Amino acid sequence: MALLEGIGLSKRFGGVLALNDVSFSIEKDQIIGLIGPNGAGKTTLFNVIAGVFKPSSGRVFFDGQEIKGWMPYKVCRLGIARTFQVARPFLEMTCLENALVAAVNRHSKGHHGEHRHLAEESLEFVGLGDQRASPAKNLNLIDKKRLELARVLAAEPKMVLLDEVLGGLNTQEIGQAVELIQRLRDDRGQTIFWIEHVMGAIMSAAEKVIVLNQGMKLMEGTPKDVVNDERVIKAYLGH
Amino acid sequence: MTQKRFYIILFAVAGLFCFLPLGLDDYRLHVVIVSLFYVMMASSWNLLAGYAGQVSFAHAAFAGVGAYTSGILAVKLGINPWVGIFMGTILAGLLGIVLGFVCIRMGGIYLSLSTLAFSEILHIIIINEYEVTRGTMGLQVPALMSQYSKAAYLYIMVAGAVLTLIVVYRVIHSNVGLNFRSVRNDELAASSLGVNVVQTRVLAFTISSALAGMAGGLYGHYLLLITPEIPSLDQQFLVLAMTVIGGMGSFLGPVVGSFILEILSEYIRAYGEYHVLVFGLVALGMARFAPEGLTGLVRGYRFRRTGLEGRPV
Predict the structure, then answer these.
(1) N or C: which end of chain A has fewer CB within 10 A?
(2) Contacts of A107 in chain B (CB under 8 A)
(3) CATH H-level superfamily of A30-53+70-237
(4) Which residues of chain A neighbour B308 with C-beta distances below 8 Å?
C-alpha cells in the first residue's frame, strides 16, 4: 500500500487553477523528486498535503487515513513533517529549543528527558550539535536550513516534505546536503518527497520524479526518463 | 536558574516583604501594595504579550472584570469578597477564552485594535450601567478583613504576587511555554511542527486574563472603591510601559518595571497627569534603543564583561 496518495487534487485561487487534477502515489522508503518550472504548483501541492490549504477537490490519504482538510499540526502529528522554501526558524529561540518544539508536540508523547534527547540527537544528525545553545538568528543560511531539517527530524515523521532545500547553496554545500538527505532515508528510514530545482541533485538521489507544469502532472518516471522526455524539455525551455 | 533556586529566591524575597510593615509608614506601605498589584498585572500581561506574542490591550479590562464581579456580588448579594474574587478570576478567565477565540484569525495590530475595542466597550458599559456599577462614582465595597489593616493587605498582595509569579514561571518553563514562544516567532512554522496554534493562543489569553481578574479583585477590595479607573486604557498603557521598560519577554522584567515606575510616579506626582506622558516617552525610547528593556541592558552588560550568554540554556 502506498504511504502517501493523492487522487485528483485540484486547488483554485479565484480564477487561477494552481493545481489541476493531480494524482500521485508514493511508496514507503522512497526518495521522490517533484520538479517543474516556476509557478507549476509544486509548493501548492505541498501546502495541500500538509494542511495549509484545503484542496478544492480531490482526496489525500496518508498511512491509510484520509487527511484532506486536516489542520497542519494534525498532519504533522500523524507523521508528515515539512521544511519551507525560505527557512522559517524560530529566530529568538535557541537551536535546541527550535528542535524541542517539534519533539514535545510529536505523535507519540514522552517525558522531558526523552524530548531533550531526541532534539539533541536531531541537531547532532544535521551537524548542529555544538550550536545548540545559540539563538537561531545567529545562524548563517546553510545552518538555518540544517536547523529546519533538525526540527523535522525531531518530529519523528514517517515522511518528510523538502521544499527546495538546496536553494542558495554552493556546489560543495549541495554535495553535503544531498548526502544528508540520502542518510535520512538510508539510516533513519524516512520516505522523502522533495521539490528541487537543482537537477543534478535530483538525478543522483531520487528513484522517481514527478513533473508538474501549469498545475497539471506532466509525467512521472525515473530521473533519466524525465530529463530525456520531450514534453519536459519543452516545458522548461518554452516553445 | 533551576526551579529549586527560583522557589528559594521567591520565598526569601516574599518573606523579606513581610517585614516591611515594621519599618514603613502607611503611605509607603500603600506604594508597595500598589506596586505588587502592578507586578501581578505586568507579569501576567507579559505572559500573553511577551511570550505568546499576543499584544492585547484588554488586560486592564480583565482586571476590571475581576474587580466588578467581586464588588457587585458583595454589594448586591452580600457574598464574601474572597468567594467574589474567586468568581471574578473564573469569569475573567472565561471571557479570556471568548476574546481569544474572537481574535484567533488576527495578529499584530489587528489583534491589538480588537482587544482595544473590547476594552472600551467594557469601559462604556461600566460607566453607563449606573444602577449596577455606580458608574464613575465608583462602587463602595467591603474590605477583605473585619479590621482594616495595611499590613494585612500587604501580606495578601505579596501572596497574590507570589501565586502569579509561580503560575507564570511554571508556564514559561513547560512545554506550553515553549509552544507560546514558537507561536510568537512563527505561527505557520509552529503549526507545521505539530503545535496546535488555536489552543495555544486561547490558553495564553485564558491564563493571563484569569490572573488579571484575580489582581483586579484583590486591588478593588484594597481600595474599597472600585471605579472605571481599573479597567481604563490609562491603566493598560501603564502596565504596558512597565513591561516594556522592565523587559518584555523576560521573567524579571515586568517585576522590575512595576516597582520602578510605581515608585517613580509617586515622586513626580506633583506634576499631575504628566507622568503618563513621561512614561510613554521613556517606553518609546526603550522600545527603540533597548528593546529588551532594563533587564536586557543588564544582561547585555554582563555578556560584554564575561563573554557568557546571560540567558540560561
Answers:
(1) C
(2) 194
(3) P-loop containing nucleotide triphosphate hydrolases (3.40.50.300)
(4) none
